[in-house]
Design goal:
By secondary structure, the chain is α/β, with parallel strands linked by helices. It folds into three domains: 137 residues, 3-Layer(aba) Sandwich (Rossmann fold), CATH 3.40.50.12160; 228 residues, tm_1862 like domain (pyruvate-formate lyase- activating enzyme, Alpha-Beta Horseshoe); 60 residues, Nucleic acid-binding proteins (OB fold (Dihydrolipoamide Acetyltransferase, E2P), Beta Barrel). Helices cover 34% and strands 21% of the residues. The chain contains 13 helices and 19 strands. The strands form five sheets. A six-stranded parallel β-sheet has the order 2-1-3-4-5-6, sandwiched between helices. Helix 5 links the parallel strand 5 and strand 6. The structure holds S-adenosyl-L-homocysteine and iron/sulfur cluster (SF4). The site of S-adenosyl-L-homocysteine has 17 residues, from strand 13. S-adenosyl-L-homocysteine binds next to strand 13.
């Protein structure tokens, strides 16, 4: 809308006109998506994206609470923003996301960093424009961490790319793994309506998007709270029929709910990418039970083998926590053995981080941090060898790549993703971004692949 067309009321709403915003996002894909919603909200107020933090009149930090490390990063960033605000009095600082959804942390931030103007939780996105308006007028820090699920959609979204879109299908989590803060900060499971998801995917395909990633803490829980209880496999099968889309991804699938029906749907759906992110967390049955994961190592390995049998060229990635309270040497050895048997394409491994309010917080933990670090290194070393040898299997193959743009480490190269989610770098022109092309894999490394493009885009 042109500024000239706005009436005085609209103009008052667009108090960000001529000003710039900067969003710093920590954490998972759901947070990345929330930041796209935040961007659309602040642009509706007239703000434009800043090229650098220092240029911004509005800084929003979207926080993560899953481990202590990202929380520490937020604290250090708020310290730096304190200095910036001293130079720039009109700067508005807002902190939102999973960390601030916890009342004690929201109040701590308000008290400790009094230059912060607004503290908002994960449920406050629909109210963000009004909250910012209040924050601008009021000297006192505004806090909104109400657990209000209503009116959360449809909210406008400013997507980061024009070829890939995040598409949340279920919010929240009911699983209560004993180490995890997510159910406390994201609330109970709420599935989006089946038809709304199909309509959004269809709209994206019309706009030229080639790839969508369906998001949920446990996508397999999709639909249990909806009339008629549509399940995740049926949603995937329906999305596979959306014309124009080339790739459908999903994350995360909880192993306990990954059914044969789901595996068959992935195997059959030509658009559904051959990749499962299947967090195992531990290879020890004793620890899995203490984690409340509700599967054992034998069931997990059966699942991995079924997936590999039914879906040729599938990649399986995982998350692992080392040093969970009570993890002894033989438990950790069981994790290493599982990793060798599962032969994951890659893993994210983390040292256990105690989270307030979780059941595991109360468990006795006698292992030193130093020992946990050693375990992490050992695990990563073994996995790196496996990743490299799995990647080497792809050398000389010609594979479909969705091009994402210039490589971050070498701007001479383009970067793209295979259907199995592996990254490939190759020489090519900037105009390929967002296109599907064929690339022959020439070299495998631990974290990525190198190749040469073959011919024109599909
Ligand atoms: N919903 C997803 C995971 C969300 S959190 C799932 O169930 O798989 C992402 C990952 O962070 C988890 O898989 C786990 O490996 C890790 N994580 C979660 N809580 C943690 C904690 N307290 N300490 C260390 N790692 C943790
Ligand atoms: Fe956390 Fe478990 Fe829910 Fe994943 S399934 S978000 S690990 S409680």
């Amino acid at each position: 809308m042109q500024k000239e067309e706005l009436n005085p009321i609209d103009l008052a709403q667009r108090f960000g006109e001529g000003q710039y915003y900067w969003i710093n996002t920590f954490g998972c894909q759901m947070n990345e998506h929330d930041s796209e919603v935040i961007a659309a909200q602040v642009e509706s107020l007239g703000y434009q994206p800043a090229c650098a933090l220092e240029e911004a009149n509005l800084v929003i930090i979207n926080t993560c609470a899953v481990r202590k490390k990202p929380e520490d990063k937020v604290s250090s960033m708020l310290g730096k923003l304190d200095l910036l605000k001293k130079e720039k009095d009109e700067l508005i600082i807002a902190v939102g996301g999973c960390m601030t959804q916890q009342e004690d942390l929201a109040l701590y931030i308000k008290k400790r960093f009094n230059q912060v103007d607004l503290v908002f939780g994960t449920h406050a996105l629909p109210r963000l424009p009004d909250l910012l308006k209040q924050a601008r007028r009021q000297k006192e820090t505004i806090v909104d961490i109400t657990e209000d699920y209503s009116g959360s959609e449809p909210l406008p979204i400013k997507r980061v790319t024009a070829y890939h879109a995040w598409l949340p299908i279920i919010y929240g989590c009911n699983n209560y793994c004993s180490y995890c803060v997510v159910p406390f900060v994201r609330g109970r499971e709420r599935s989006r309506k089946f038809d709304d998801i199909i309509a959004e995917a269809t709209g994206l395909a019309h706009q030229g998007y080639r790839e969508i990633t369906l998001l949920g803490q446990n996508v397999n829980s999709y639909g249990h709270d909806l009339p008629g209880k549509p399940d995740f496999a049926s949603l995937l099968a329906k999305l596979n029929q959306v014309n124009g889309l080339a790739r459908i991804r999903f994350m995360t699938a909880h192993p306990k709910d990954s059914t044969l029906d789901l595996i068959q749907t992935v195997a059959r759906g030509e658009k559904i990418c051959e990749h499962f992110h299947l967090p195992v967390q531990s290879g020890s049955n004793k620890i899995l039970s203490k984690m409340n994961r509700r599967y054992n190592r034998e069931q997990y390995l059966d699942l991995v083998h079924t997936i590999k049998d039914r879906i040729p060229e599938v990649s399986i990635t995982s998350d692992i926590i080392v040093g969970f309270p009570g993890e002894e040497d033989d438990d950790f050895t069981a994790t290493l053995e599982l990793v060798k048997q599962a032969r994951f394409d890659s893993i994210f491994a983390f040292i256990y981080s105690s989270r307030r309010g979780t059941r595991a917080e109360k468990l006795p933990d006698n292992t030193t941090y130093q020992e946990k670090e050693k375990r992490l290194q050992k695990l990563n070393k073994i996995q790196q060898q496996i990743s490299l040898s799995e990647n080497e299997k792809l050398v000389n193959k010609t594979m479909e790549v969705l091009v994402e743009g210039n490589s971050k480490s070498n701007p001479e190269l383009q970067t793209g993703r295979l259907r199995n989610n592996k990254l490939v770098h190759f020489p090519g022109s900037d105009s390929l971004t967002g296109k599907l092309i064929a690339v022959q894999i020439k070299e495998a490394r631990t974290w990525n692949l190198f190749g040469e493009s073959e011919g024109e885009p599909f």
